[in-house]
Amino acid sequence: MAFAKFAVFTVIGCGLWCSTLASLGYSLGSSYGHVLKDFSHAGYFAAALFAVGVILAVGHRLRSVHRENAERPLAPPCEPPMSATRIVSEPPRDRLVIDMTQEEIHAWVNATVDKIRRQRRTIEAAGPHLKAVIAAYTPEPEES
């Protein structure tokens, strides 16, 4: 809309609005006490209605939040990342390394190395922030 057209319509609208409010105020001015008494009763009713509406809205919101939280599954517990030396140094728990054949030890070491490589690719894909967090939680290897 062009500015001139907007300005003309704004002036007309403001003039009508102001003259209507002024006329209404002038006509109600003589019966000010009576109107004030009537509006005070209506004001109490409106305030009570507003309070009931607020209470119902808050109650509805609390119920919906409670329902959403009840439906949301719990996150699995997080474990700190394992260092590569700890993964390699732990043999299978059900058998001792001494009882394993050379082929079984070889297969176990290869599986462990593959697991470390997969974890490393995941960490490299995660970005530098995750690398810093993992470095902070990874224990330093003990020096002999």
Q: Would you write up a description of this structure?
A:
By secondary structure, the chain is mostly helical. Among the domains are: 32-74; 84-137, no CATH class. Helix content is 75%, strand content 0%. It contains five helices and no strands. The chain has helices spanning 3-29, 32-71, 84-89, 102-126, 128-137. The chain is elongated, with a radius of gyration of 38 Å. The mean pLDDT is 77.
Number of strands: 0
- The share of residues in helices is over 70%
One letter per element, helices H and strands E, the order comes to HHHHH
Number of helices: 5
Pairing-aware structural class of the strands and helices? mainly alpha
Q: Could you say which overall geometry the principal axes of the C-alpha atoms support? A: elongated
Assembly category: single chain
- The rounded Rg comes to 38 Å
Question: Biggest β-sheet, characterized?
Answer: none
- Strand fraction equals under 5%
Mean pLDDT: 77
Terminal CA distance reads: 82 Å
Summed up, what is this model?
The chain is mostly helical and 144 residues long.
What are the defining features of this structure?
144 residues, mainly alpha, 0% strand
Lay out the secondary structure.
Elements: H1 3-29, H2 32-71, H3 84-89, H4 102-126, H5 128-137
